[in-house]
Amino acid sequence: MSSPVTLVLATRNQGKIREFRRILDAISNGAINLVGLEEFPHTTEVEETGSTFKENALLKARSICTETGLPAIADDSGLCVDALDGAPGIFSARYAGKHGDDKANNAKLLRELENVPADKRSAHFTCAAALVLPDGREHVTEEIFEGSILLQPIGDQGFGYDPLFRPHGLAISTAQMSAEEKDLISHRGKSLRAIAPHVISLLTPLG
Length: 207
Prior knowledge:
By secondary structure, the chain is of the alpha/beta class. The chain has helices at about 15-30, 55-70, 100-110, 180-185, 185-205, and strands spanning about 5-10, 30-35, 70-80, 120-130, 140-150, 165. Helix content is about 30%, strand content about 20%. Helix 1 (about 15-30) packs across helix 5 (about 185-205) and helix 4 packs across helix 5 (about 185-205). The N and C termini lie close together (about 10 Å).
């Protein structure tokens, strides 16, 4: 049996690493060893200068692939709120100013939507996933996850905007869902499942 192929996920976000690893393990049957940037502490912090989720995902995957010499996968994801003309969008992780401050980001979102009624709070998550190999091959997928923004945070699972996001057709927030339930319908789950066949075909040795 061949040894697992190492794939670097271009993030230090432990919630995201766990989520990607769960999904990829289920699809690859252990053929891919996914590691995060904690294994490569000296890699450069990639500036997300792209104007779209796809551009930012590719920027990160290309940079990490170049620096580590290993296949790299990166995602760029965010929340797009219709009443805010698509904001926070590609700025979702740093909406309140500091990157990755979930509590502050959620508080700002609620302030921005303070006078918006429940039936006008439609939104969707977008996730672009990019795979870059050392030989120059690249593949990108993008998927969305539709729902609406709640009037207050509910639930303690997940991360990011999960406590404020209610998926279409459900009466609970994504922060009230189990990891497995969320993976089945989330933007990240769908995007990674879409790119997973390319990961497996490109990284798994034949035979």
